[in-house]
Amino acid sequence: MLISKSIKFLLVFILIEISLGFIAKKIFFSQTTGKYARLTYSIQNNSSEVLIMGSSHANRHFVSNILEKELNMTCYNSGVQGQGLIFQTALLKMILKRHEPKVVILNLDEDWLYDSEEFNERLADLHPYYWDFRKELDPILSLSSEFITFKLLFSSYQTNSTLVHALKYFFVPQMDYKGFRPLNQKMEKSFPPINEPLISKEKNEESKIINKNFALMFEEFINDAKLHNVKLIFTVSPQLLQFDRMNVNSSLTLMKIIAEKNRIPIFDFSEDRTFIKKYHLFNDPGHLNNDGAIIFTKLLANKLQEEVDLIK
Amino acid sequence: MLFNSIDFAVFLPTVFLLYWLVKDQNLKLQNFLIVAASYLFYGWWDWRFLSLILFSTIVDYLVGLGLLIQNNKTKRKILLWTSILVNLGFLAFFKYYNFFLDNFITAFSFFGKEIKASSLNIILPVGISFYTFQTLSYSIDVYKRKLEPTKDFLAFSAFVSFFPQLVAGPIERAKNLLPQFYVKRTFTYQLFSEGVKLMIVGFFMKLVVADRAAIYVNAVYNNVDNHAGLSFMAATILFAFQIYGDFAGYSLIAIGTARLFGFKLMTNFNRPYFATSVGDFWKRWHISLSTWFRDYLYIPLGGNQVIYPRWLINIFITFLVSGFWHGANWTFIIWGSLNGIYLIIEAVLFKSNNKKIINVLLTFILICFSWIFFRANNVNDALYIVKSIIINPGKLYIPSDNDVIAPVFAVMAISILLGTEIKKEYFNKSFSLAENKYPLVRWGFYSCILFLILYMGVFNSSQFIYFQF
Fold first, then answer.
1. Where exactly are the transmembrane stretches of this chain (chain B) (predicted)?
2. Which residues of B does the annotation mark as catalytic?
3. Rounded CA gap, A259 and A261, in Å?
4. Does residue B238 come out as left (phi exceeding 0), alpha (psi in the -120 to 50 range) or beta?
5. Rounded average pLDDT over A286-292
6. ipTM above 0.90?
7. Is B5 within 8 Å of chain A by CB?
């Protein structure tokens, strides 16, 4: 009785899982705006010549239309908020399976090589694409999650947590301009609060550990691009406040060493005087507003011109 | 080993199959298997602490045997105190040593005396408060001749270390659980089905209700300087459901797992947020601990069979100790004291328990107020939160982009949970999906719950809150 009833229950569960899972996936892939819609577009439809990659700094700082105009090449911004290097490597592998952009600009976040569970947890954004890109994703997702293939057999697990996004952007569509999403507030000069010691940031850096897997992923990112003859360019976004980062930030230092070893050009705007303490160009301490993004993109485009001319 | 981990997903079916495949369902062999599995389950955290359970088991077993043959009152008392000192000694050392040391140093420095003593780097063994209380109840019951001591060491070891409830209860009484190790267990579909259903509901409460709520609660309570009253209120209400989902969820998984092996554990939660008074709440919340304190502290203190002021003091002492049991921190002591004060006020001012809905709401508000102290990282934070709620409501913190999912899903899950509890509390005899006479409807219901777990749950193998106690 146990076996027959268990099998019947299992059948009912599979039926419900497949039906509701099918609806959940339909909802997921029918999104037209928002993070997942941009991600799906980047993977399935994008055919631009220049591709911007990175976290929210990439997404909010690189004005695709300006780059298109200045470089005379089509451009799309695939920056995804909160994502680290491991995600960028996975995303590049998925994109390259269908399309080879001429140039990929990867905006580096200074903490990308530091060990962080969050970067692994956020890989869940890739779960809905797993079965279409199993070969590419398996080695990456397996690093942080056991039995990933088994778990992702369930459509419900693949689309875990995505419903709120879909509903949110269905009712309030999220505007973007070829992937770029401007921020429109201007910071007030009261940042940082008088009593807040700036030094705390540097002190925190010292206790952080480099994650070897993240460093390997960075090299893999470079190798994948090379393998597909994609011109790779690294950037570091402007900062509001100047920190003596290079002395303490081993993550950024290591990324720069790897870039140099592989002869990848790197344009570091983190100490650019155009932006330091220019509160009116920032939306918040970590992100440029639209005015700041326009100035930054134009400055970058000038610097990129020479690099891009070589591949045209 | 956590219930919400892949390790447990492999461990449970393996032990289950081995257990029921034992030839002729041999009792000794099954009990041995339970002990071995339980030690493996506990040793998964830190094998070194297995020695504590083993030592506690041997001491209480021998104390039980000693009490069986000993009629001399003084010697019986010595035996009982041996058990109390060993069990509470472990607890005092591992859980409270640093707390007392730090507070002594602070107290002396207040009077201008500097004491140099360094706190020890002590790791708190998971679930120590639970299994020490369980074994202690055995010794006390045997001493009071309420229970016949066991001569079966294997059965006693299995009773102490029974893995489903080893680390976070329910704190079973020997009178209920121990005899179940003496009798032949037979596998029935009914038992299996009940166990699996309880586990499914338990996982929903843990992975969807508790873990989703936790994300918002942690964001607010771990950054008190950046939030105001409204956010603290929202976070406190969510915490009320986080801790309920977490602990009641654990209890259901524990009770369900025990059923799979043919055991019946006591109910630990009975829709606590529908209590119509704080007294009623404590009859519905963490029942195994409340009744433990009632039987082994409140009644020995005299209970309500004493003069009126002494009765009120007994209530207060019981809750003060209960707060301290939860953790070596002033926040827990204040939390316990607050509940004691609530009960004293109820005892003095409200003689009859009115079943009106307004009482449910008032009780919920009072309980939520006490949760502030339970959850806050320290007393200063708790006082700041209370002050902010009263004088600085400010703006409600709404997480941006990705993070907004957590509170939205938490509210959705809480609504589902409350919906089913309202039905059980007020309309128990009406139509039921979970207990429907048609199997297809029941299976469909539990399949949907499983789907919701996979679709809305948090899968980062987070700890259960009560493991730290």
1. 6-22, 29-45, 51-69, 78-97, 117-133, 191-209, 307-326, 332-350, 357-374, 404-422, 443-466
2. 326
3. 5
4. alpha
5. 93
6. no
7. no
